[in-house]
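From the thread on structure requests for the teaching lab: each student submitted one protein with a one-line request. Submission from student K.M.:

"Model Two-component system response regulator from Pseudothauera lacus, tokens only."
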Amino acid sequence: MVISSEQPFAHQAAESGTAPDLQCRILVVDDDTALRRSLPIALAQPGRHFDCCASIAETLRQLEHNSYDLILLDYRLPDGTGLDVLSWLAASQRQEAVVMISGEDAIDAAIGALRAGADDFVRKPYHLAQLQRTVHGALHKTALERANRTMSERLRASERLHRYLVESSPDLIFTLDGEGCFTYINPRIESLLGFRGNQLLKRPFLLLVMPEDQDRMHSLLQDVRNGHSERFEVELRLRRNRLSLDQGLPETVTVALDGLPMPGRGDEGARSPGLYGVARDISDRKRAEEIITHQAYHDQLTGLPNRLLFRDRLELAVTHAQRQNSPLAVMFVDIDRFKLVNDTWGHAAGDTLLRTLAERVSGVLRRGDTLARLGGDEFTILLPDISQPQDAETIARKILDVLAAPFALGNGEFRATVSIGIAIHPRDGHSAEDLSRHADVAMYKVKRSGKNGFRFFDAGLNAHHRQRVSLENDLHKALERQEFELHYQPQISLNHRRAVGMEALLRWNHPTRGMVPPATFVPVAEEMGIIGDISQWVLERACAQLGEWRSAGHDTLRMSLNLSPHDFDHHDLVDKVMAAVTRHHIPPALLEVEITESMMMQDADATATKVRELRSAGLGVAIDDFGTGYSSLSYLQKFPVSCLKIDRSFVRELSASAVNPIISAITGIARGFGLHLVAEGVEQEGQVSVLRSLGCDIMQGYLFARPAPAAEIERWLNTQPLPAAPG
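Reply posted by the TA:
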């Protein structure tokens, strides 16, 4: 008869420290029905659950499906004895506690039961208190044994786990005795350093430490031995076993050692701590750190020091030079026309040029000199411990000489030149920043003076450089602040006795400098790359002004304006000009774009294409300052221009008694090509007479009107004095 089917939890109760028979399960085996009913009642306590069986067969069936904390087993049963149940339990390696209950008087029954595995024997008749004590003791013993087995299993599992972790760890794990000798070392030693573990047992750990790290490690072990140290971390280099080294492996391994003192006892009973050690291979990390450090301080393309490392070396050299009262030199080197290489052959060719140039320059420097790449095509050189400034000049000349040979760039040869600026300490500065800046200023002076050379810094260069920087800063804001103005100078036709055109002339009305001439600021704007914005402003303002004058009745007036050579580099030049003409309702024939002879000769094919597009759109194109350049008549055939402008330098030399042959030639060329002709810089009546006699009808100059703002020119247009009619 089954009283309860709940599972036992006696082992949990024992572990938790509560009553040992809390939540336990008891099987009562007896053929006496009264006992099967009374025992559960007599032994009942909270947490105890009872099942009952009347025979061995029923008991075994019950045990096959359930487990119990205690079996109260009657010795005599209808189909056998309780010894049969004990035999089954032993054969099945069951852990149930058994209390045998028997009415047998012979001692042999008790002895047999105990030998067969029973935990206790109770003889009938028995006192209830005696049975209760026996059951309680058996359950308590069962709980303790089960807790002990659980703890032992956990300990064995933990030991297996930790042994597995230690022996399969990628780290080197070891223990040292008080003398610093190995007492244990895991198998990682063989793959890491090439030693077998038994080779190192009882041998000093310091045998593995590289000589340069031994003193440091010896001090740490001594502190551990004296009890002055707790846990420590240190980086060491350990040597590999040379006899087992694979080819290509380095002789040392860098490890991060984590050491923890462990208690020990010496031969005389005094404390002699040993050491737990875990050493992790950080060789790859150290190599990665070295690579990262190298990349942080070196240029990846050339392998040269970069700006940061050069600055560190320069500051150190300046400090040394100040102590020794000795000079040093800083060079700033910039490759001339480097953009041409990238634009012509691509950046791969540019990289090849940079690497090859760095190799050549490095070859002419001394051992203690430093060549660095700042970026792009800029290099710097540090020349410490020079005896005189002429030594820097000698190096500069060697650099220019070594670069004289052409560079093979795959697609062709390129002759590279450089501009070199030199600053000398202490003459040109007492700090790394001043020396670098002054060498840079000197280099830019070489750039503007024709390139391919060197120059020493002087104070005048610095003042000029500061003025240049100030001019650049102001020029950036000039458009925004509306500081630009257009002045206009009339172009007079003697035959028609009136102004037939206006030349728009750009002026910069600086708030503190006053009127800045174009010759001063236009080249700077071209270098800064803002000339395109300025040209667009000139185009818009000139067209707008011409539109206003046309509305006022001057509908045949032409407008001439100058564009920068850089404007012709843009593919949309013609579209921008035509957009302005259309926007202000101006016939294209009334707008004339002026170009120079030098522009014709630079990238002639591309410029000629733009000129043809302008002419096809109906616009006029004039060659300004004609005759001052080196163009030939073939250029006039290639460039379909509409007008030639005689330069003022030729007009200035005219006199009534002598005719300038150049002007005669220019007027003949204009007639031969069917071009308009305009003479600039006319200031005297005699010049008018000669130009008129040569067939030049349109003139401009101070004799007729000076360049002036639009308001003044408009008043002039309404009241202009008519020139004398041709004789």
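TA comment: The chain has four domains: 10-152, 169-289, 298-457, 474-719. The longest strand covers residues 498-510.
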